[in-house]
Amino acid sequence: MSRWNGYDAEPPSSMPTIHAPTPRRHLIDTSESQHWLGSPPLSPVSSTRAVSPFATHFPSNTSPTSATSTSIRGKKAPDSPTRRRTFSSLYNTDNPPKHLRQRQTSNASISSTYTVHGAANTVSLHKALLRSKYTQAHGETEHASLGRRWIRSMHKRGLRTWVIPGAIAFATLVKLCLGVGSYSGEATPPMYGDYEAQRHWMEITTHLPFREWYTYDLQYWGLDYPPLTAYVSWLCGLVGSWANPTWFALDASRGIETPGSKLYMRLTVVFFDMLVYIPALIMFVKTWQGTRSKRTQEQALLLLLLQPALLLIDHGHFQYNSVMLGFTLLSINFFATGNDLVAAVFFVLSLGFKQMALYYAPAIGSYLLAKCIYLGPKKGFTLFTRLAVTTVASFAILFLPFFLPGLAPSPLHILHPIQRIFPFSRGLFEDKVANFWCASNVVIKWRKLAGDGDTGRSWLVRTSALLTALGFLPGVLGLLRAGWIMRIREDGSTQKARELDTTITNIAEEGAEKDVDDSKNDNPPPFLPLLSYALLTSSMSFFLFSFQVHEKTILLPLLPLTLLMSGAQPGTALHSWGALGNNVAVFSMWPLLKRDGLAVPYIATVVLWNRLVGYNPLTNLSVDFRQLFSLAVYSAAIALHALELVIAPPARYPDLFPVLNVLISTPVFVLIWLWSIKCGVEVAWALGGLSSSSSSGVTAGQSLGTTTGGPGRTGSLVPEDRDVAELEVPLEGPASVLLSEENLRLNGPGARRRRVGDFVERVGES
Q1: Is residue 591 part of a domain?
Q2: What pTM did the predictor assign?
């Protein structure tokens, strides 16, 4: 046999070709698909990196090299090449920002030059490559956000372990600086404002028994939040009374504004923020963006920590919204890890702290119901029963002092907190809020149209409830349809496949820890990415159409919108919509912030946040509806601010400027609501939720990765005469993605066992 000396142009044909993968740091040098970089490990023992449950599987364009490497003895490998990507990066593929498109073009041209000229001009081509990479790095540094540049510098200086503590410390410093300023109702007797309301609740819960919490002097800031807020107020009042009893003396402390009491009240907001909200944010970036780089996770955390609307309302205006949002976010995080019962408890805590968390209830309820449908009749009914018992027990514990004999006069006493929590006796909207009712009230006087008295109020309540339900219906139907189409069915034909799968797993994991049984439902369903868009659709629908809305409740739609934005690249559609929504949300609260004397913090927090996230609507200008619409909105907002500085409103129209603010802000929120519905439809389509094979479902054998081909197959979502890797759906927004059966196979229950089984099968064939 002839030996190859290593200097010939090509080795003899008899020698096997070794295909070495390109290292990750050199991935920029080639334009070929490197699907193996993100493919799931063949064995669960071989990977120590956590996989994000927010990730989905997408096909890659298989190069000849990869096609050769995935074949075994002339046979197709059991798995088609896939790569794992976080879901927020899905929207970056079709419309990347300008500097990323330039980098891709440059890489493609250099790669093609190498292909054409071979090794003839290796030195010159290598220099050209280095120049191109330097130019790309310099350009990316210029385009990088302030936050990303700070994170990069910390990593280069060997301080990467201090990035998250530094970000939290900086955010805490910003909150304390905001606390130095004024607040709601400062020095404005006799009712003062929200600050006095929160302080007064600490006063009455500390000195009065349970039975009087929701009935004592309702004309002066009567308690109208759920019991968990009352318990937190009691705890804060108890600790504050130990420090200084005059701060919370019953009736005598009304309107107290001493420096010590103000400092204590501000620190309670920071404390509960650190206790609930910040751990929820850290868990979010570790769970939902677990497959992203460390720097991307830190950038997402920095973006979420300094969200201007929440900072201004909680630490400027003074409220505890971060506690409610933190409980909701913890619930979402535990849904992603498959701990549905724990997630249900945290969502009950969110509802028990502020009733506005009901804005998320349709999305979360439909997600849980869809998962029960997805698991099949037996396991689904078990999960449904456990969820029902957990939810009822959690609410019962929260309301226990208000109906338990001995603590309450009678079980009917529970009606007092319920009537206070849902104030249908109030108006359709409060102040000037940027929703449908207030904006359309300029033309249609709804109160006059409905009439006075209980009849008119009842008609407004029913109409608002109907519009709200129609608003969140697309998100609910998308989740339920996805659960129905992707449902797992047990039948006799798949029992042997399940037994074989169990046998292979036991052999492969001999001597190691046993895998968790599928009946524990610890895997999130494949339609989990729909939850974020359903939350945005539901909460925005409540804000736009529901009864009795405050301008501060825009914080609820901002949570899912900012979570989706946190993993997107600057310049992408997702990033632009998220930045526009956050900026306009702060602008919509300008009348409230102006009344509180928070003009300087209003400007400072918005400018700081936009610099940190790298958002500038004037960069990369193009003839695009999103950019043109954003420029028009920002121009109108700046013009309105300038108008307020130089012109006083006419005496006949004292609310002229707040109404103009509403007319500018409402179209933005309506478009974000429609955009969330559009994205939800696209994601459902991408995950197979809009497949036409809804009548058959997915059998348990298919979900366990058994053969998809062959006659007699039941409930298949893939035609028998086509390969799984060829099933790509061209979509307008997201990239082409794999249909549902492959997603179920690689991301559904038993995925770990299937990877072990595929590994054993490959070893056996080779």
Answers
A1: yes
A2: 0.75
Q: Please indicate whether residue 502 or residue 244 has the higher confidence score (pLDDT).
A: 244
In which residue are the tokens 């300029």 written?
Answer: 442
Task: Judge residue 132's burial from the number of C-beta atoms within 10 Å of its C-beta, 0-12 exposed, 13-18 middle, 19 or more buried.
Answer: middle
Mode of pairing for the β-strands spanning 728-729 and 698-699: unpaired
CA atoms of 417 and 214, how far apart (whole Å): 6
Backbone torsions φ then ψ of 405, nearest 5 degrees: -60, 135
| Nearest in space to 398 (alpha carbons), one of 343, 354, 367 | 354
Report yes or no on 597 lying in a domain.
Answer: yes
Residue 413 falls within a domain, yes or no?
Answer: no
* Domain count of the fold of the chain: 1
Q: Which of 574, 669, 647, 510 is nearest to 89 (CA)?
A: 574
For residues 634 and 639, what is the distance between their CA atoms, to the nearest angstrom? Answer: 8
In a domain, 247, yes or no: no
pLDDT in tens, 329-382: 999 999 999 999 999 999 999 999 999 999 999 999 999 999 999 999 999 999
Per-residue pLDDT tens over the stretch 80-120: 333 333 434 433 444 455 555 555 555 555 455 444 445 44
Are the C-beta atoms of residues 435 and 466 closer than 8 Å to each other?
A: no
- Structure confidence at residue 396 (pLDDT): 95
Query: What is the distance between the alpha carbons of residues 81 and 61, in angstroms, rounded to a whole number?
Result: 9
Length of the chain: 766
The dihedral of CA 474, 478, 479, 484: what is its sign? positive
- Residue 280 CB contacts under 8 Å (≥ 6 apart), including other chains: 325, 326, 327, 329, 330, 333
Q: Which residues span the domain enclosing 569? A: 165-186+257-375+426-503+524-688
DSSP state of 328: H
